[in-house]
Design brief:
globular, 3-stranded parallel beta sheet, 11% strand, 192 residues, alpha/beta
Length: 192
């Protein structure tokens, strides 16, 4: 029986030299990791599976996130993880396309593993800049064909477990960052 391994990385909130570019020189290119469906076609999970989970790495493009990804890649040689899961905040400000280009570089050592992501408020810039939602949807489009700037949530069924990846930003700030903390979904909004 395989053991479930969780690697949770905590991040610092210091942004003095966060390593994130704030330009749009590179177009957003979809991530090309294998999908979980492709990985499941090649893997017997009847005895269980291992995966790694981490999140909120947005403050760490200065080298520590890269070091963590490198360590996961090394551990994967022995552990044979089925996938990695990120709980969100994959960059600092998703309105800048170069931050997604940087993510390609950071995640390169894990190119052979599916990368499952729960959308965070930073990669969609708190809904303040619509282009951030478009950038995020394009970058993660390999995850689910229904992902779009208007629908940044999806589900994956892996064995007997159903994983729901939700974008909760709409519930907190509203569709266009018009509400600080709404009491509930506004009629006709994405959150509804």
């Amino acid at each position: 029986m395989r053991t479930l391994i969780f690697l949770i990385a905590l991040c610092s909130y210091a942004f003095a030299s966060d390593g994130w570019e704030k330009t749009d020189v590179h177009p957003v290119v979809p991530l090309t990791h294998p999908t979980i469906e492709q990985k499941l076609e090649q893997t017997d999970i009847s005895d269980g599976y291992s995966f790694v989970i981490f999140g909120d790495q947005r403050a760490q493009a200065d080298g520590s996130w890269q070091a963590m990804i490198g360590e996961i890649a090394e551990l994967n040689k022995e552990a044979d993880y089925l996938f990695v899961m990120d709980t969100g905040d994959i960059n600092n400000q998703g309105r800048y396309s170069d931050q997604f280009h940087r993510l390609h570089e950071i995640l390169a050592p894990l190119n052979d593993l599916p990368y499952l992501v729960g959308i965070g408020n930073h990669e969609i810039s708190y809904n303040q800049h619509p282009v951030a939602r478009e950038n995020c949807a394009r970058f993660l489009s390999y995850l689910d064909p229904s992902l779009s700037a208007e629908k940044l949530y999806y589900k994956k069924v892996i064995g007997d477990v159903r994983y729901l990846f939700l974008d909760g930003t709409d519930l907190v700030v509203g569709d266009n960052c018009e509400l600080e903390y709404p009491d509930g979904p506004v009629a006709g909004s994405r959150a509804e």
